[in-house]
Specification:
The chain is α/β, with parallel strands linked by helices and 189 residues long. The chain has two domains: 9-87; 90-185, Nucleotidyltransferase, domain 5. It contains three helices and five strands; from the N terminus they run H-E-E-E-H-E-H-E. Helix 2 runs parallel beside helix 3. The mean pLDDT is 84.
């Protein structure tokens, strides 16, 4: 049993093991550096993603506010259209226009023209009075819109029309019929 005769050179084996450890440590160090670089890049990407998410949330909030505002505006328009429809269904709009030579009376798509004669305005006065009385014979509220161009209408014609409208308004008041007169000068000046 001679143990001394088997002699193993451990120095070279120790060198190989140390070299392998050095290689493993170097590789681990490189992998650690790569992992740290990836983690830093991931943190940068996460920060960018967070900023993008915050920006998108702000845009979403702004769009949501715009949508709510648009819905409210649409609801307001719907209420206005409904009110306008109710008013138009329960009232009568009469448009009276004058251009110096003729008087035009329009109501519910129908038009009537009354010639104005300088020599005798009684014909125009009586014809207009009769047409207005016939037009407002019902029980609906009446809106009379008197349109004229101050440059095209003569003072006598204007005064005659105002007088007839005043008479019709008094008659409507006696019948307790609501009548509103709106006067519109279409001239540019």
């Amino acid at each position: 049993m001679r143990r001394r005769e088997i002699f193993i050179e451990l120095t070279s084996l120790l060198d190989v093991i140390l070299i392998m450890l050095f290689v493993l440590l170097t590789q681990a160090r490189t992998q650690t550096a790569d992992a740290l670089a990836e983690a830093e890049a991931g943190r940068g990407a996460a920060a960018t993603a967070q900023r993008e998410i915050a920006r998108l949330e702000q845009e979403n909030a702004a769009l949501s506010a715009d949508r709510d505002e648009a819905r409210e505006e649409a609801a307001a328009w719907q209420r206005q259209i409904l009110s306008d429809a109710l008013v138009l269904d329960n009232s009568l709009v009469v448009t009276l226009s004058a251009d110096g030579a003729a008087i035009r009376l329009e109501c519910e798509g129908e038009a009537q023209t009354v010639a104005y004669r300088w020599e005798d305005d009684n014909y125009a006065r009586n014809a207009l009075r009769a047409a207005l009385r016939q037009t407002i014979a019902g029980d609906k509220a009446v809106f009379v819109v008197f349109q004229y161009d101050r440059a095209a209408i003569y003072r006598t014609e204007y005064d005659m029309l105002r007088e007839v409208l005043r008479e019709i308004k008094l008659e409507a008041r006696e019948r307790e019929l609501p009548l509103t007169l709106l006067e519109l000068d279409r001239s540019d000046s």
